[in-house]
Design goal:
- This protein is of the alpha+beta class.
- About 25% of the residues lie in helices and about 10% in strands.
- Strands 1, 2, 3, 4, 10, 11 and 12 form a seven-stranded antiparallel β-sheet that branches. Strands 5-7-6 form a three-stranded antiparallel β-sheet.
- Strand 2 and strand 3 form a beta hairpin.
- Helix 2 runs parallel beside helix 5, helix 2 packs across helix 6 and helix 2 crosses helix 11.
- The longest helix has 14 residues.
- The radius of gyration is 21 Å and the shape is globular.
Length: about 475
């Protein structure tokens, strides 16, 4: 059974700016009400970090605390970071989203894939979610062999007619595409490190370097596959049935190599060391938020072009067969490597410009260019993000914020209004403002979107930070 550990409230560290107090309230309630083991949450607004919180145990068994520099595997949230690498390549003229994949990778044209576009591939419409050739973990480090295997794969449906979550394979196809178009022939993980992580000064890896200590890593606490049957409130029943059926496309999507079919195995050093750009990224919450924040505010430090950013904001084009995902067995909407908001999975404002990627473990990262805002939440207890109340809380009740409203920032994040009865019965978060509070507040440059500072007679509690050190 999945691990349950009581986390003392005093372990919450970090800080928030004025106007973001309810982010801290919801973050805390994930531990007190939703049995979180450990988590981190970071938010950037107009390029400035306004939320940076962490708490709990990076290992629930040993009760090693989550530290400021803890890194955690983020499962499919990695897809968003990999898509950033593709977006940078697009801005540099190396990739055209509407060109065929075969234009850059001629061998890809085999077995009916000659007309598959980069856009279709990135939108999970190419029919390449499951790889038929049996793979071992060691094969993933041999990129030349992987290129041959990937090119030989036949589509599971006519490309563009249906969509099915390319849960593992998408990153391998993106990686080979980057390797083909990059003048230096770099892997996607190396390209990301050089062209995104280094310029932004963030710590996120696709392929964990040998010099990163295991003592800094948080551990996934995952269900065994059969235990998913006991948690159908968190996982769609049809998805669970497919995941447990070796003949289904869902099982084949996540079970090759076999080692990747068990989420606990993403704690293994050898699994984290190879590049799996759709699934095994590892890093800090503030790193992912910082990268999304750069994309949300124009991407100047990365040399992003407006045509690239406009393409990411554009509405997704659903396949001709509709939005039902043949792998996840639920409605989905994808575009250029990202999930886009739709009625059953809302995030960002109601204009639909946001884009992001969720991941198992309650992790989710997204950017909303409409507000120059991004959120990143991550934890280490596995669940279905689309059903997890731990992740849903920070993006619930979305609305178009008003810049003159004190609630504009939390409304943009989809946060529920704090219930006064709960707030009065709980001690203030360290550093929180409130009646008689004397905590030191962060001061920063004025923003046209930032609400008035919290007044003690106007709100019950609105933590301004810093609480601890937030670089």
């Amino acid at each position: 059974m999945v691990l349950k550990v009581a986390v003392p409230e005093g372990l919450i560290k970090g800080g928030v700016d004025d106007g973001f107090g309810r982010v801290a309230d919801v973050f805390r309630s994930n531990f007190t009400d939703r049995h979180e083991i450990c988590a981190a949450c970071a938010v950037y607004r107009d390029g400035k970090k306004v939320v940076d919180l962490w708490s709990g145990y990076r290992n629930g068994v040993t009760k090693s605390p989550w530290e400021e520099n803890t890194i955690v595997p983020v499962a499919s949230t990695t897809k968003g970071m990999a898509a950033m690498a593709v977006a940078v390549a697009h801005s540099r003229g190396l990739i055209d989203f509407d060109a065929t994949v075969a234009a850059y990778w001629p061998e890809f044209a085999a077995v009916g894939k000659e007309h598959v576009t980069v856009r279709q591939l990135l939108s999970h419409q190419a029919g390449l979610c499951a790889i038929d050739t049996p793979l071992e973990l060691s094969d993933l480090a041999d990129l030349d062999r992987m290129a041959v295997v990937l090119a030989a794969q036949a589509p599971a449906w006519p490309p563009g007619t249906r969509q099915g979550y390319h849960g593992i394979s998408l990153g391998w196809y993106e990686g080979e595409l980057i390797r083909r178009v990059d003048p230096q022939g770099r892997t996607l993980g190396r390209f990301f490190a050089d062209e995104i992580a280094a310029p932004l000064g963030i710590e996120f890896y696709i392929g964990l370097p040998a010099d990163v200590s295991d003592d800094r890593r948080a551990i996934f606490h995952a269900y065994k596959p059969a235990e998913m049957l006991l948690h159908l409130k968190e996982f769609p029943a049809r998805f669970v049935g497919g995941f447990l059926n070796p003949r289904s496309i869902t099982y084949k999507t996540f079970g090759n190599p076999r080692v990747l079919g068990l989420l606990d195995n993403y704690n293994r050093r050898d699994v984290l060391t190879v590049e799996i750009p759709a699934a095994n990224g590892i890093g800090q919450a503030r790193a992912i938020a910082g990268a999304y924040g750069e994309f949300a505010t124009g991407g100047k430090r990365l040399g992003l072009q407006s045509r690239t950013l406009d393409a990411l904001k554009d509405p997704a084009a659903a396949p001709s067969g509709g939005r039902v995902d043949v792998v996840l067995r639920i409605e989905s909407l994808f575009s250029l490597g990202y999930v886009k908001p739709f009625p059953r999975f809302k995030f960002g404002t109601d204009r639909g410009l946001a884009y992001g990627t969720p991941g198992g473990g309650g992790s989710f990262g997204f950017a909303d260019p409409d507000l120059g805002l991004c959120l990143r939440h991550e934890s280490n207890r596995i669940s279905s993000v689309r059903r997890s109340s731990r992740d849903r809380a920070p993006r619930r009740r979305l609305s178009q914020p008003r810049s003159d409203s004190p609630d504009s920032e939390v409304a943009a994040l989809g946060l529920p209004r704090a219930r006064a009865s709960r707030s009065r019965n709980r001690p203030p978060l360290p550093g929180a403002c409130g009646r008689g509070a004397t905590a030191r507040r962060r001061r920063g440059p004025a923003s046209p979107h930032r609400p008035p500072q919290c007044q003690a007679d106007r709100c019950e509690r609105s933590p301004p930070g810093p609480v601890g050190r937030t670089p």
